[in-house]
């Protein structure tokens, strides 16, 4: 059984932990300390407020440890704000972790009032259309040569993978589907 951590400093971490608890092959771990981060086999960076999460990563000393673990091959999945944290480039801002060769635009779909959900087939993530929930969501404007586009919505990249790094601009933890979780567990 592999331990899957969820960064539990701010954002939708409890929803991810609940979703992981429904999967029999994983042990969900709330990651709040360096000791927690050292023990996990995989990590999810949840949606929330990317600037707040980044500051908390710095304050807790987890930022440099997380970068090191990524370099060592730790599979990491960032959803929404987590995607922003992973990005090497953020339009109009300084990067946070800067470990994934993507350029993102924060709040690309608009404000909280512009949040929406839909269903769409993303063949790399499953054979059935997935429920997609976008909350003040970013999109990916550019990917590097080593980064694979996994899905688009309305002409914008919403899912990408670079090696063992996965980024989605939507919130699978707020749906009844576990398809993206299963994809992540196979990285």
Automatic annotation (TrEMBL):
Entry annotation: catalytic residues: 80 (nucleophile), 171 (charge relay system), 173 (charge relay system)
Species this chain originates from: Phascolarctobacterium faecium
Keywords for this protein: Glutamine amidotransferase, Hydrolase, Lyase, Pyridoxal phosphate
Residues that bind L-glutamine: 48-50, 106, 135-136
Gene Ontology CC annotations of this record: cytosol; glutaminase complex
Subunit structure, as described in the record: In the presence of PdxS, forms a dodecamer of heterodimers. Only shows activity in the heterodimer.
HAMAP family listed in its UniProt record: PdxT
An example Gene Ontology molecular-function term: pyridoxal 5'-phosphate synthase (glutamine hydrolysing) activity
Keyword flag Lyase: yes
Reaction(s) catalysed by this chain's protein: aldehydo-D-ribose 5-phosphate + D-glyceraldehyde 3-phosphate + L-glutamine = pyridoxal 5'-phosphate + L-glutamate + phosphate + 3 H2O + H(+); L-glutamine + H2O = L-glutamate + NH4(+)
Protein name: Pyridoxal 5'-phosphate synthase subunit PdxT
Cited function: Catalyzes the hydrolysis of glutamine to glutamate and ammonia as part of the biosynthesis of pyridoxal 5'-phosphate. The resulting ammonia molecule is channeled to the active site of PdxS.
Signal sequence range: none
Record-stated family: Belongs to the glutaminase PdxT/SNO family.
Known EC number: 4.3.3.6, 3.5.1.2
Domain of life: Bacteria
